[in-house]
Amino acid sequence: MVAGLSFQLASLTVFSILAVEFFYNVKKDRKQIRNTNWAAGKVEHPPTAVSGFKIFIAAFVAATILIIARSAFRVAELVHGFKSELANDEVAFMVLEGGVVILATFAMTLFHPGRYIGEKWKESGWGVKKSSNVIELRKVEDMESPIVHQRPWPMPQ
Fold first, then answer.
1. DSSP readout, 20-52?
2. Which helix (H) or strand (E) covers residue 75, if one does?
């Protein structure tokens, strides 16, 4: 378990470093590069900052830090086994295990990126869609010949 949690902690740390580099490069490129709409044959200026998107970034950073803190606690808790003092401290467990996960979940739910991107979020295809495959269910009594089990695919012969 300690090896797995250590790997998780290392992975989250590498992810955080790469995310910081990504956001830094995006910010730098927004200042230097203009997007080109090749289909229209014109150069477009980068869009202005999405209103409130920095709030999402702050929530994302906070959630990531909280999960890293949780993983570090779990490694420290289990490095000396299940009978260690830290592994049996219920208050630390409730706060650093459950509490930080709840806070991270609330942060990412309350400050979901879809709130700030708006219509572009729906255009991306990540919105909640109703299924186009609607099945109408009828009572067996309403059917002309009741079928006990009906498959939507043909039976093999």
1. HHHHHHHHHHHHH--EEETTTTEEEPPPPPPTT
2. helix 53-78
Instruction: Tell me the C-alpha distance between 77 and 97, whole Å.
Output: 11
Range of the structural domain that residue 82 is part of: 2-131
pLDDT in tens, 57-102: 899 999 999 999 999 988 888 888 888 887 788 888 888 888 999 9
DSSP bridge pairs for 42: 37
> Cα-flanking dihedrals φ and ψ of residue 95, to 5°?
-80, -50
User: Could you say which DSSP state residue 138 is in?
Assistant: -
State pLDDT tens for residues 25-53.
877 776 655 555 555 555 555 555 556 77
Q: How far apart are CA 16 and CA 146, in angstroms?
A: 59
- The answer to the question of residue 13 being in a domain is yes
Residue 68 lies in a domain: yes
